[in-house]
Amino acid sequence: MRKTVEFGRYLMKEGELREIEWIVLNETPDGKKLLISKDCIAAMQYEYSENNNADPKWENCVVRLWLNNYFLNTWFTVREKDKMIPIPVDTPDGKLLEDKVILLSAEEVERYMPDEKDRRAKPTAKAKRKQNGDRIYTENGYCTWLLRDPSERFDGNWTGVDPSGKLDLYGGDFYLSGPKGIRPVIMISD
């Protein structure tokens, strides 16, 4: 069983504000902890705009904006945000981004979560709610969750982890098939 911590609060279902439970993916000797939410706390598509899906990129996708604006500024106190360390992210076109909240890459999933059963995540009640008429797909209580990498095969699609914990590097109709789980990743210092 992996170590967990509580940090920040989120509306897990209507009327229920709870501490967010995070799994510690990595801890450095100087007290920095890389954390991923235990559950999929939201359900979104990578991009909402039909105009952007020909060449969507992490740096301008709706999920990144939501994580680093609404999610960060609504559900964490000033003190908690001060404990968060920006995480460097190299983009496929060579840009270096630094965000306080990210999604994992496929390579990071393999490094920090080598066992497929440890990758499985359940959606919160709020994540299960309909979004634009679509519901998040679940299998045995687990859902697919998004990664920040583009598909290796299909332009405009994104990688993810399926309900069984397997990586989906191709995306297939991943992008078009409705909302997927969102598991934010943060780094904090003690």
Cross-sheet strand order for the largest sheet: 1-2-3-13
How many domains would you count in the coordinates? 1
> Which spans of ≥5 residues are poorly predicted at pLDDT below 50?
none
Mean pLDDT: 85
Give a quick account of the main beta sheet: strands, pairing sense, barrel closure.
4 strands, antiparallel
Tally of alpha and pi helices:
5
Q: Kindly name the structural category.
A: alpha+beta
- The proportion of residues in beta strands is 25-35%
Order of helices and strands: EEEEHHEEHHHEEEEEEE
Radius of gyration: 16 Å
Assign an overall shape.
globular
- Tell me how many strands there are: 13
* Helix share, percent: 10-25%
N-C termini distance = 22 Å
Concise synopsis of the structure shown:
The chain has 190 residues and is an alpha+beta fold. The protein contains five helices and 13 strands.
Description:
With 190 residues, the protein is of the alpha+beta class. It has one domain. 18% of the residues lie in helices and 32% in strands. It has five helices and 13 strands. The strands form five sheets. It has a four-stranded antiparallel beta sheet with strand order 1-2-3-13. It has a three-stranded antiparallel beta sheet with strand order 9-10-11, with no helix packed on it. The longest helix has 14 residues.
What characteristics describe this protein?
190 residues, alpha+beta, 4-stranded antiparallel β-sheet, 3-stranded antiparallel β-sheet, 18% helix, globular
